[in-house]
């Protein structure tokens, strides 16, 4: 059975609609938004090691390559699949840590000097809470982002897209267990992709 874009939109809306808009929901949503704003500050302030602490040890960090496909094939073919073929990122905690370590050597060809970056996060929605809103230990959250990057003198890039995250509550607070980044570009317009999303 083929899933259409309209079916997928209805399913996503229905999933979100099942969450009661209670005081507990809005408190949790505010906590999640604060978590994302803190994450953006860490990245913008180049506190990359502190950012790594927001990731679980088993984190999956994935950015598919997006393809132009015929109408009706978006769900099945528009994005490359995790663990299959090529993608912009298909990483775990170890590879993300190595990327941070490489930047912090000070001899990274694309980050010397370091870029000036601003992350803007919006449209935060809790799609699912497990086991429930009142006692949530794991959340499925969507958000939108705009990332501005300026390098050297004249290199300026803007990345816009969506994130589908799974957040997990730990002894030290919420952490990112899974992140899927959907960049709203088919062709990468930047010279490189060194920023974290």
Helix-strand layout with pairing:
Blueprint: H1 5-17, H2 23-44, H3 48-52, E1 55-64, H4 74-77, E2 87-91, H5 93-103, E3 116-130, E4 138-151, E5 155-170, E6 173-183
Please outline what is shown here:
The chain has 197 residues and is an alpha+beta fold. The chain contains five helices and six strands.
Tell me what the structure shows.
- There is one protein chain.
- With 197 residues, the protein is an alpha+beta fold.
- It contains five helices and six strands, in the order αααβαβαββββ.
- It has helices at residues 5-17, 23-44, 48-52, 74-77, 93-103, and strands at 55-64, 87-91, 116-130, 138-151, 155-170, 173-183.
- Compressed to H and E, one letter per element, the order equals HHHEHEHEEEE
The order of strands across the largest sheet is 2-1-6-5-4-3
Q: What count of helical segments does DSSP give? A: 5
Total strands = 6
Low-confidence stretches: 1-7, 9-14
Assembly state (oligomeric) = single chain
Percent of residues in helices: 25-40%
The amount of beta strand, in percent, is: 35-45%
